[in-house]
């Protein structure tokens, strides 16, 4: 990953080659090089070692904020964090700007109150590490549930879902599926999210693609696994999609199943 290439990565890789004796310097200072096998690799941790150390140097409050940001997504909304933690938005932004000075995150200058993780590998580790901790603690499992519930509450506190990106909508859908009936009006909310993403996908016949087919399959899967969504809600979704230049008719004619 070129985004994570640095002198440290190169130095660590060369050290790995020396440790495995693919680079040998003999007593006469002669250099001997051996070609490593194709599957030779070094630990992914070198790509986020510095970030990991910086994270553990943060206060517990700031670590919690950053973990909840990772739970939201690689790109995250300061307003959402303010809502999740019930903390004033200005205070959250101040915390994020402090963390930004460490180099772990950066402000998206094109979007208000949007930040993102600078290092994808660190972001992945942070999510994985939080999930790993959750599996060992009932308290943390409840914490994750509360994170997700408050995220969904934040989403539906907004009058317009168009403020969220496709990636965010898919992330919200994933959280809703995992929460199930722990969320008030689960059926109504998941139908609204599916309908919203379907409207984005099914804009013209040319845009009917594999993604659209998967969305339809997901909708039917919800019905299949008895999430108590009334069949009329499904028909309303399909009817509104059909109104988008008849694109759904094209899809259904290609795959009657």
Describe what you observe in this structure.
This protein has 257 residues and is mainly α. The chain contains 12 helices and 5 strands. It has helices spanning 7-19, 49-56, 60-72, 78-85, 89-102, 120-134, 138-155, 166-179, 186-201, 210-224, 231-242, 247-254; strands at residues 23-25, 31-33, 75-77, 105-107, 114-117. A 3-stranded antiparallel beta sheet has the order 3-5-4. The chain is elongated, with a radius of gyration of 24 Å. The relative contact order is 0.07. The model is unreliable at 204-209 and 244-257 (pLDDT under 50).
Overall geometry comes to elongated
Radius of gyration: 24 Å
Structure summary, number of beta strands: 5
Q: Going across the biggest sheet, name each strand in turn.
A: 3-5-4
> Which spans have pLDDT < 50 for at least 5 consecutive residues?
204-209, 244-257
Class by helix and strand content?
mainly alpha
- Tally of contiguous helical segments: 12
Order of helices and strands: HEEHHEHHEEHHHHHHH
């Amino acid at each position: 990953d070129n985004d994570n290439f640095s002198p440290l990565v190169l130095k660590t890789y060369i050290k790995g080659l020396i440790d495995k004796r693919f680079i040998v310097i003999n007593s006469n200072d002669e250099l001997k090089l051996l070609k490593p096998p194709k599957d030779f690799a070094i630990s992914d941790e070198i790509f986020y070692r510095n970030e990991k150390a910086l994270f553990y140097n943060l206060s517990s409050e700031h670590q919690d904020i950053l973990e909840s940001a990772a739970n939201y997504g690689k790109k995250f909304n300061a307003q959402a964090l303010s809502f999740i933690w019930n903390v004033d938005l200005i205070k959250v932004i101040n915390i994020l700007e402090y963390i930004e000075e460490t180099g772990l995150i950066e402000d998206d200058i094109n979007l208000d109150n949007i930040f993102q993780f600078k290092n994808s590998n660190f972001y992945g580790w942070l999510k994985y590490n939080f999930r790993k901790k959750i599996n060992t603690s009932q308290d943390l499992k409840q914490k994750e549930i509360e994170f997700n519930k408050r995220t969904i509450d934040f989403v539906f506190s907004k009058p317009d879902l168009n403020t969220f990106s496709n990636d965010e909508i898919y992330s919200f859908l994933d959280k809703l599926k995992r929460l199930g009936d722990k969320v008030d009006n689960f059926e109504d909310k998941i139908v609204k999210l599916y309908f919203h993403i379907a409207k984005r996908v099914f804009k013209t016949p040319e845009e009917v693609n594999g993604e659209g087919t998967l969305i339809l399959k997901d909708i039917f899967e919800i019905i299949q696994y008895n999430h108590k969504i009334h069949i009329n809600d499904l028909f309303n979704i399909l009817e509104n999609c059909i109104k988008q230049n008849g694109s759904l008719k094209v899809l259904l004619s290609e795959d009657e199943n």
